[in-house]
Amino acid sequence: LNVHYDAIIIGAGVIGCSIAYQLAKRNKKVLIVERSKIGNKASTAAAGMLGVHTELGEDAGLLQACLKSRDMFPALSDEVKEITGIDFELSQNGMIKLAFSESDVLASQRLLSLSKDVEWLTEREVSLLEPSVSRNIGGLYAYKDGNVHAGKFTLALAKSAIRLGSELKEYTPLLSFILEHGVCKGIRTHEGTYYANEVIVAGGAWSGQILKHAGFSTADYPVKGECFSVMLERPIINRTIFTNGCYLVPKRGDRLLVGATEHPHTFDESTSVEGINILLNKAIKILPDLANGRWEKAWTGVRPRTAGGLPHIGRVKGCSGLSIATGHYRNGILLAPLTGVLMADVLEGKEIEPMFEPGEMDERMMIREGKD
Amino acid sequence: LNVHYDAIIIGAGVIGCSIAYQLAKRNKKVLIVERSKIGNKASTAAAGMLGVHTELGEDAGLLQACLKSRDMFPALSDEVKEITGIDFELSQNGMIKLAFSESDVLASQRLLSLSKDVEWLTEREVSLLEPSVSRNIGGLYAYKDGNVHAGKFTLALAKSAIRLGSELKEYTPLLSFILEHGVCKGIRTHEGTYYANEVIVAGGAWSGQILKHAGFSTADYPVKGECFSVMLERPIINRTIFTNGCYLVPKRGDRLLVGATEHPHTFDESTSVEGINILLNKAIKILPDLANGRWEKAWTGVRPRTAGGLPHIGRVKGCSGLSIATGHYRNGILLAPLTGVLMADVLEGKEIEPMFEPGEMDERMMIREGKD
Amino acid sequence: LNVHYDAIIIGAGVIGCSIAYQLAKRNKKVLIVERSKIGNKASTAAAGMLGVHTELGEDAGLLQACLKSRDMFPALSDEVKEITGIDFELSQNGMIKLAFSESDVLASQRLLSLSKDVEWLTEREVSLLEPSVSRNIGGLYAYKDGNVHAGKFTLALAKSAIRLGSELKEYTPLLSFILEHGVCKGIRTHEGTYYANEVIVAGGAWSGQILKHAGFSTADYPVKGECFSVMLERPIINRTIFTNGCYLVPKRGDRLLVGATEHPHTFDESTSVEGINILLNKAIKILPDLANGRWEKAWTGVRPRTAGGLPHIGRVKGCSGLSIATGHYRNGILLAPLTGVLMADVLEGKEIEPMFEPGEMDERMMIREGKD
Amino acid sequence: LNVHYDAIIIGAGVIGCSIAYQLAKRNKKVLIVERSKIGNKASTAAAGMLGVHTELGEDAGLLQACLKSRDMFPALSDEVKEITGIDFELSQNGMIKLAFSESDVLASQRLLSLSKDVEWLTEREVSLLEPSVSRNIGGLYAYKDGNVHAGKFTLALAKSAIRLGSELKEYTPLLSFILEHGVCKGIRTHEGTYYANEVIVAGGAWSGQILKHAGFSTADYPVKGECFSVMLERPIINRTIFTNGCYLVPKRGDRLLVGATEHPHTFDESTSVEGINILLNKAIKILPDLANGRWEKAWTGVRPRTAGGLPHIGRVKGCSGLSIATGHYRNGILLAPLTGVLMADVLEGKEIEPMFEPGEMDERMMIREGKD
Question: Is D155 an interface residue toward C (CB < 8 Å)?
Fold first, then answer.
């Protein structure tokens, strides 16, 4: 006798766990299968920025989605703390995107017109708010942006889903999909065979490898990012400071996270000497007092990026019963709450709100490669 | 020019940091000097139990002090979270002290008569509350006891004190006291010489070694304790389960701490194979489902114990300007809030409340040894 | 332009690295691709026993292969130390397989008749050699068995292969095989497409998942094993002590490794509380002085086991250009030297010596599942 | 009944262990007491350079001592490997001290005249030997210098001493000296009171604090040094590369150690962001290929430095029965073999060879402070 689920989710990263949690809230029977353990990859490596306004020249729809997802965090924090006791350390302390050149200023102008929660700060205003920051020519102040403890956020979502009835199987890699006449009926693993109405691939940068098992090929690619953390005697910044190529995120207990490099097209999870050197030089230039901090450690995460830059969230064309939620790149933590709700909506047959339709799979990106 | 402080505290463990915080709240100028770093020893190793009712045959005054200190935690949690953002994970989930023999039952009777916050549970009642616990003959239910994350609690106190103006010098071992005509005027360190109205020794198990520098000898001794932690898929107990020789403390994120062995008269900070073996066997006997958990790690702490069993809190007889706060043994975390207030009262010349006078130094325990 | 290799090896564990080294010695152009990093799984988790005589009722051919491979270690140690400077800590200190029952004695009799390098010890003789061992009824003394540092052994093989011209690509998971008309021509990865005369799957317990990509299914399965290590003040045993379910391996610097549990059919890499508890109880019963040691750490490895119990070494039937070397179970370290030579022989078209023909793939275990 | 020893050594760092080993070889009854565990501080943090020629403007006597001690390593390596099985990874691969300016060249000239084991390399010759090194104007080639694994070296000495009969008590801090009429008779610890003909303080940077207990004050001071390590795919240098402020030491398995900063007068064992940043920038400038390596970790050690720059080795004036061996600064590993022999000679009443008399205590540095 095989168990039948409403949904099987492949991957217990922040996206998979958020989907599981939203489905569980709607009384769906959910199974998460995870190759290693909860949040083992990018979800734990992330700095946890809720940085709606960190990207330049982004799609307007994505910006609105980011705003919407960010605003879901306070209620979500209360919910999961109630269920699990876990405080995922939500800070709504704002973010300042520093400008050092006229082109930086111009780039910020566009965000001022697109977003309601930002304002421009002169250099003097930056200096009043963040006196330790080095010379600049002003900055974009996203006063509602913030950050969370990425690992605890992922854990809290996973544990909340489990408390509401979801099942989680760690150390359970996918062996193959059960495909019948173009319909995905479930999955095979070493632990057993499981059937579901919908199988959702939420494998982060490894989603492409997972989809290979169903005969699909994507143009998605991994982007490695390196970070390090510093312990301070006392706070030297109160808000996230963002610049091109380097951001500094203040965390609980006077820890400061500094990220992140960008190395596309590699799954390499080692931390390069060059990456740390570049980050360190940039960070100390922006915040000279950082030099007095204590080195804690360096680490690396691999983020999933789509060819088009927008996440894939929705049903896979050409294979009924198979969905995907990946490609969140640097916005995985930020977009996790909304992604969870969107996928739950999709599975209930609801229309995804027009302001955000990344569920539309680009056929150039998602071509059926052959027969299983 | 030398700096002059209201108080110098030797030791940035939970006791030293709590005293610093209470003094800082009263606008005192405080310096903490610490041999290594904040909470480096027993304060971080502790399971963080607020176990008012865990000890048998304890002094009634100590019990009242424990109750009083425990009830200070909720307000303290709010205060330090407000100041530092740190949530030290206070749980007020109760503690059940299991009875396996008639003598266990009799021992609990005494606590039923002494404390207002406890009740007796029959085996069936224990089983309703904690169905995973193995066969017993009832238990003492201290429904108001709880636990905190010991390391975060210590850090939050330290950081709060600093935010309120205290200074902390880590990696600054004491070289010698400045003693003049029987008066302690300050301390010498490699970083400099510091003067204060009062020097407070809060060095945990190492307090005796520190007091040696002032020519005092104590009969205090270290008691090594070993612990381990387990990660669970889902909670198997909701309250702390306490037995003679083994307690199990549920923590955030389905972590379970299991403690603690007792090895008196050793500063050995290694974890013995025997200690882990004994604890593991006991823990699995009490809670068979623990066997399915994931081993996380084992560690060791060294707790300060006085010859009389009660903590030393107060002025050192025979040396004006020198105070001591140590000997809290298994109650360091629990008694930290009250100890902070008591020491601040002592320094302001207030009388310590009659219900708890451990400040009285026993001369048998604290005999001036003479010039070495 | 695509690079063409003599051989591509999938997996930089001890088996893959040994094959690479032997091929490199024969001037073959080799590429190793590895999903994570050198020796990341069982090769580093292993206790490193060269335990020819640890298994009961084993195949006689396997025993001869084990003897042969064991005797290759001294020369191999010299070779790789010369090339890389790495000393992989070969000890030829012998192994005693203790008997506690008549059936244990009988089981050892068979090995006495099969192997030339063993002798029987009476209890008194055991006690003279290993006075700390608890009461027994004698033991089988494999005086030529020994052990190595498994992680250093793997690293030394990898580095030696590289110094002799092999290429290694870490963090490079297989995307797919290049299969044309039943012939394997190479592999595709995110780093590029690579062609070779032969592709060799040496993926340990994950070999089955890798072979899935070529449409093959095996009945191999993973067997999880848990271990722990202890630091001793001084040696308490000089030889490996082996019993059913627990062995104790003395390492350099008075470290003692204790292994290993057996949990078949799981890829779970966490360490169970139950596993540690069982091992600890057994180990202390065999060697009571172990209780005085210092707990260091516990860990887990996942070993590859074939349905028939014998390793798969040789060409895959039904797919020219594809070979496999896996299923070494508890003998991966021990059999690595011979496996390297055998695979190099196979690739050069030599006949594998008749005493050991694991290259014969069992068709029941290796059935073509479908089309790619 | 109290035990009586030939010598009690305070401190199980590389110096204390080397002395213990040499005394044990001469059949002396030795006790080592150690506050924490073997090699816990600078002895493990050290890069392990046997850098006879790394210092500029050094005392000629010190240079001769360094040469003599360096040449003791090969035999010592054989001895301790025979006794304990531990290979402390002695490399005799040479050291090149790069010159970037005329003053660097002049500084090296002096060493060319003082030492027999060095020669000058032109830039072209440097480039032939070490092609990855960046542009320079030649270098001093100390072709006989080398390095060891500092932690293993210390462990091997400790374990060798123990095998030859020495006792080691870890986690046993000194409480006080037993001083009678200006004679040191032994020590008191929590573990007991121990008597000896000679008490030898070998406490590294903490020796001054230890001597305080005997009423002595020294002008010695700690010098903090930060290091980091990198894992390489293949070797990029074969010899130690030394420059002012940064050295790169190739280790087994393609690990590269980079050290070390100099922060005098602090016991701070944390690793500063500034220190890592400075070292990283220097190292990449000297060896650009380092940027492609993998970051492993950063750490810190605190080295003992004397006011005069030369180590203190010998009897303490004004206190019979008390000796000292400390102040080795950056040469602790290098000088450990000779220090062990010298101290053993001193204790046997032999004259220390005239070429090296650091045993002469400078009275300005070592003034009896009087009763505290």
Answer: yes
| Residue D209 at interface with chain A, using a CB cutoff of 8 Å | no
Q: Do B295 and C273 touch (CB under 8 A)?
A: yes
Q: How high is the mean pLDDT of chain A?
A: 91
Contacting residues of B for C230, CB less than 8 Å apart: 273
Between C207 and B219, residue with greater pLDDT: C207
Give chain D positions within 8 Å (CB) of C155: 253
Nearest neighbour of C292 by CB, restricted to B274, B276, B280: B274
Whether the CB of D246 is below 8 Å from some CB of chain A: the reply is: no
- Return the sign of the alpha-carbon dihedral for residues C331, C336, C338, C341: positive
User: Which of the four pLDDT bands, split at 50, 70 and 90, describes residue A318?
Assistant: confident
Q: What is the CA radius of gyration of chain B?
A: 21
Q: How far is CA C216 from CA B46, B328, C316, C339, in A?
A: 53, 65, 10, 22
Structure tokens that stand for D215 in this block:
């009423």
Looking at the complex, does the CB of residue D270 fall below 8 Å from at least one CB of chain B? Answer: yes
Instruction: Kindly report, residue by residue over B259-283, the tens digit of the pLDDT.
Output: 999 999 999 999 999 999 999 999 9
Task: State the pLDDT at residue C310.
Answer: 87
Predicted confidence at residue C224, as pLDDT, reads 97
Given this model, what pLDDT does residue C206 score?
A: 95
Question: Which H or E element spans position A122?
Answer: none
For A55, residues 6+ apart whose C-beta sits below 8 A from its C-beta are A62, A330, A331
Model pTM above 0.90: yes
Chain D residues touching residue B222 (CB < 8 angstroms): 190
Query: D170: distance to nearest CA of chain B, Å?
Result: 7
In D334-347, which positions are buried (b, 16+ CB within 10 angstroms) versus exposed (e)?
bbbbbbbbbbbbbb
Residue type, C60: A
Q: Which of D320, D315, D274 is nearest to D298 (CA)?
A: D274
Q: Which of A180, A189, A268, A269 to mutate to test the interface with C (most CBs of C within 10 A)?
A: A268
Give the pLDDT score at C129.
97
Cα–Cα nearest to A297, from D268, D248, D276, D252: D276
Do B253 and A159 make contact, defined as CB atoms within 8 angstroms?
yes
Check D173 against B221: CB less than 8 A apart. Answer: no
User: Which range (A53-57, C283-287, D230-234) has the least confidence?
Assistant: A53-57
Element (DSSP H or E) covering residue B323:
strand B322-326
* Residues of chain C below pLDDT 70: 1-2, 55-58, 352-372
Could you tell me how many CB contacts below 8 A there are between chain C and chain D? Answer: 37
DSSP, residue by residue, C26-88: TT--EEEE-SSSTT-SHHHHS--EE-TT--SS--HHHHHHHHHHHTTHHHHHHHHHHHH----
Give the model confidence (pLDDT) of D40-98 as tens digits.
999 999 999 998 988 655 677 888 899 999 999 999 999 999 999 999 999 999 999 99
Helix (H) or strand (E) holding B304: strand B294-305
Residue with token string 């180590």: D311
The more confident residue out of A219 and B339 is B339
Give A371's contacts in chain C (Cβ within 8 Å): 371
Q: How confident is the model at residue B23 (pLDDT cuts 50, 70, 90)?
A: very high
Strand C192-201 with C322-326, pairing: parallel
Inter-chain Cβ pairs, chain B and chain D, closer than 8 A? 56
Compute CA distances C83 → B303, C86, C152, C268, D152, whole Å: 51, 8, 14, 36, 22
CA of A308: how far to CAs of A43, A217, D146, in Å?
A: 22, 15, 54
CB contact under 8 A, C266 and A371: no
Q: What pLDDT score was predicted for residue A356? A: 38
CB contact under 8 A, A272 and D293: yes
CB-side exposure of A287: number of CA atoms within 13 Å? 32
